[in-house]
Design a protein that fits this description.
Layout lengths: L5 H19 L2 E7 L6 H18 L12 E7 L4 H13 L4 E4 L3 H17 L6 E4 L16 E3 L4 H13 L6 E7 L2 H17 L4 E8 L8 H9 L4 E4 L3 H13 L6 E3 L7 H5 L7 E5 L9 H13 L8 H17 L5 H8 L3 E3 L5 E5 L4 E12 L13 E11 L13
Parallel strand pairs: 1-2, 1-3, 3-4, 4-5, 6-7, 6-8, 8-9, 9-10
Antiparallel strand pairs: 10-13, 11-12, 12-13, 13-14
Helix pairs in contact: 2-11, 3-4, 5-6, 7-8, 11-12
Length: about 425
């Protein structure tokens, strides 16, 4: 006869409670981006979009793995690589196993190196790096590693799309390139020079310069140089306060040609440009909000605006990041074994609510998706940005941009 002692019953109950607690434990993601300083608006907007996506796509539908909630918490890195490494260690010590970051490729480079080293030394507390906006091509080339996944198109893929449009505009003969002085700004400059030379060798690069990131208070001197050079078009990778400052200075100093950008929408930028940006501002980006592609997309945007009246769904890749992470966790059957989750992400295909197929290229962890050239306008806008009446509409599309783009990634897998 089986005899169960009081100790045995207590132990069994303890194990049962422990298993239940583990099942219900939150899946925690640390959002390490600027929440103070000159880029605070950009970071705060991104955090709200991640938190909303987690609730809308996961938690309101019953959670993951039988009821576990996905929680995204903010860690302020002040756009500093050094501070980011501090916040990374804080997050790891507090049990976060998913690290989210996007603003500044300089930060992303520091994080991906630190995470690779940490994961080799600490197999019991490994983390995955979900990069939603840092687009330095090196991150999925020479600096690639298994732990890093990029959900935005890299700078070269985006520049390929932009330069196709520029090359097709026979009114453009002189181009000025300007950007922030760090890895991403340098990557934009290099790609623009190489691709314009290949596609339109007759185009003259009349300026190519970098400025300190987040430190220029008045872009008037830069704008005057651009207009004095007779530029027909401007290419810039500027984002946040630097994009806003440059754009306003260009318009104020009489520049009327197209400005081809990566991140010139939302976070106050659209409202600041207003009528002056119409016919001027173009950006290359993923996702289509105008016109909405489906009732599901419209309902998502309406619900977001109901919660954040002053907010914008201006980074649809955030929704894609959460959707793919959730799908990978379910496929892996675990959220705690990040190796299994990473392997589930590799090669994953998923339909975005924004009307495109998503494919996580396994050889370098670069997401492949449709890329659009978007135009700043107040015509045909269902969903505006910054409550300004202005938004972005699709001008042209490249389907699954960069699918066959080369990579130098040589990935070691755990």
């Amino acid at each position: 006869m089986l005899k169960i002692t009081r100790f045995g019953v207590a132990a069994a109950l303890a194990l049962s409670v422990s298993a239940t607690a583990a099942l219900a434990q939150d899946i925690k993601a640390a959002f390490i981006d600027p929440l103070s300083g000159p880029f605070a608006a950009t970071g705060s907007n991104g955090l709200h979009q991640f938190q909303f996506a987690a609730d809308r796509l996961v938690n309101e539908k019953g959670g993951l793995l039988g009821g576990r909630k996905l929680v995204v918490d903010g860690f302020d890195n002040k756009t500093s690589p050094q501070e980011s490494l501090i916040q990374l260690q804080v997050a790891i010590d507090q049990g976060y196993r998913y690290i989210i970051q996007g603003n500044s490729s300089g930060v992303a480079n520091a994080l991906t190196e630190a995470i690779e080293k940490h994961n080799k030394r600490n197999p019991d507390s490994r983390v995955l790096f979900l990069n939603y906006s840092a687009v330095d091509p090196a991150l999925t080339n020479d600096k690639c590693n298994f732990w890093h996944f990029r959900f935005d198109a890299n700078a070269d893929i985006k520049m390929d799309v932009l330069t196709d449009v520029i090359a097709g505009n026979k009114d453009i003969h002189k181009v000025y390139i300007i950007g922030q002085d760090y890895s991403f700004g340098k990557a934009v400059s290099a790609a623009a020079n190489a691709m314009l030379k290949a596609k339109r060798p007759d185009i003259e690069i009349v300026g190519d310069e970098l400025h300190p990131i987040g430190k220029v208070k008045d872009f008037t001197p830069y704008a005057r140089k651009i207009t004095a050079a007779g530029a027909d078009a401007v290419i810039t990778g500027n984002w946040g306060a630097d994009m806003l400052g440059l754009g306003k200075a260009l318009v104020a100093n009489g520049y009327t040609g197209p400005v081809y950008t990566y991140y010139a929408a939302g976070s106050g930028i659209t409202a600041a440009f207003g009528e002056a940006g119409k016919g001027v501002i173009r950006l290359v980006s993923e996702g289509q909000t105008n016109p909405p592609v489906s009732d599901v997309a419209s309902a998502y945007y309406d619900a977001y605006k109901a919660k954040y009246a002053d907010g914008n769904v201006d980074q649809t890749r955030i929704t894609n990041t959460i959707a793919m992470l959730a799908a990978a966790i379910e496929k892996a059957g675990t959220a705690d074994d990040v190796v299994a989750v990473g392997k589930a992400l590799e090669g994953m295909e998923l339909d975005s609510i924004w009307g495109t197929k998503l494919f996580m290229r396994p050889q370098d962890h670069q997401l492949i998706q449709n890329m659009h050239i978007l135009q700043h306008t107040n015509e045909g806008v269902t969903y505006d940005y910054d409550n300004s009446g202005f938004g972005v509409v699709v001008e042209s599309t490249v389907e699954m941009a960069g699918m066959d783009s080369p990579t130098t990634c040589k990935m070691d897998r755990p």
